[in-house]
Here is the input.
Amino acid sequence: MGGFAYVMGGLARKNAAVLKEWNQFEAGLVSRLDLETGLSELVMKYDSPPENCADKSPSILFKTSTVVGDQILACTETEVVVFSFPDFKFSHRISLPSFNDVHHVSATDRGTMLVVSTGLNMVQEVNDSGQVLGEWDVLFQQPYTGFDRTLDYRKVPSTKPHPSHPNFAFQYQGEVWATRFKQRDAVCLTAPEKNPIQTASEVGIHDGILHGGFIWFTSVDGMVIKSSLETGEVADVYDLRDLHQGNFSLGWCRGLTFVDEDHVLVGFTRLRPTKFRENVRWIQYRMGMREHAGIHPSRLGLYNLKTRQHVRDYDLEDVGMSAVFSIHIADR
Here is the structure.
């Protein structure tokens, strides 16, 4: 299979296993993966300016991004960063006091951006100058409910626990939608009367992609879920765990892209020992695993959805990729 995948994520600090989540990553990374040879190379290592993040050991990494023409809209925890694509030359950045634990940036048909400020439980529409044109709380409360508009939340290491944890926003037929991890659905923020999009996930969805008239989600425990944009109902579920043999964890599943009509690439982040033991007991339950079962490295998995087969894996840790968030296909 030819072509290239550009993978965005982060480099973990050496002592990440004993750090808080909001201190674990030291840099954003972009790697270029040759899908035919399996070889990857580091394209970029990114560090946020000090004025745009917390003062002490902030987590810096790329979360879920969006390709728009010859540009890519990327995000760190406190910024939107625009690069050319696929050569990743820096264009400009936007950073607002309301950006905290940003998980996703996407484009609208109006030429603006939807920014998911997960830490403030909301989605904001901003233009290229950083002007806020709209904002929505994903629990349909007033924006900033429980927060202080006068604070610079880029300097706040964490606002957890999150009541909803939105992590993906998209536009469909002119309306703004967002996923809600804890509610395990996607809701229409601009027309709340619309039925939520269901996901059939037991533990929470992370991100998605619009393709072929459907929205395709990943769940963190290793499922690809196909849901109808029209009815909101689940159309199909691909449990990736059933496509593997052996007693091991697939890892923290997030990031999805289509290579062709049958094949998808899915991102997996290695479970670090402390997090595996203390924070993700659901993986043992869901996998029927023993605690000492094997743990796979951070990687991409290639799957044939038509035949429901695992085709191959691409290891990403040789270029330092500790966490995977976003995958984009290009021909060079």
